[in-house]
Amino acid sequence: MKFELRKILEADWELLLRWRNDINTRRWFYDDNILDEKSHIEYVKKVVNRTYAHIDQYILFIDDKPVGTIKSVNKEDLCIQPKNYLSYTIDNQFRGKNLSVIMIQLFLYNKTGKFVCEIKESNIPSIKMVKRVGFKLQNIDTNKNILTYIINK
Known about the structure:
With 153 residues, the chain is α+β, with helices and mostly antiparallel strands. 29% of the residues lie in helices and 35% in strands. It has 5 helices and 7 strands; from the N terminus they run βαααβββαβαββ. It has helices spanning 13-21, 23-26, 37-48, 99-108, 124-133, and strands at residues 3-7, 55-62, 65-76, 82-90, 114-120, 136-141, 146-152. A hairpin with a 5-residue loop joins β3 (65-76) and β4 (82-90). α4 packs across α5. It is globular and about 35 Å long. The two termini are 27 Å apart. The model has no long low-confidence stretch (mean pLDDT 92).
């Protein structure tokens, strides 16, 4: 099997929108609203053209077939050190095959810094995955039911 992680292209907007609006994916997001086509196309253009320079987004391909996406949003921390907040999803037909582990490992390869995953406490598969990759529990927000996992690279 050939694994490739490549930056998104404008032509990927439809695939990314399908993944983003999938009901099984949305239930894990802070904002679980369905995104409209127009605003999503604008978002993809801004990421690709680096208008949103703080966002990097990639698609994982296996044997030239797209199977998932990972996004890093660089946010300045109040403690001065920047943090990269990760979000990710795997296409429904490829879930349960540990592909998210491969995707995050490929993404983190040769990167340095602090990477953060904020996960709903009911999202057990994602919690197991980030632990497998080496993320450590940093914080529990009982008001929002969010667990924060961090890895320093």
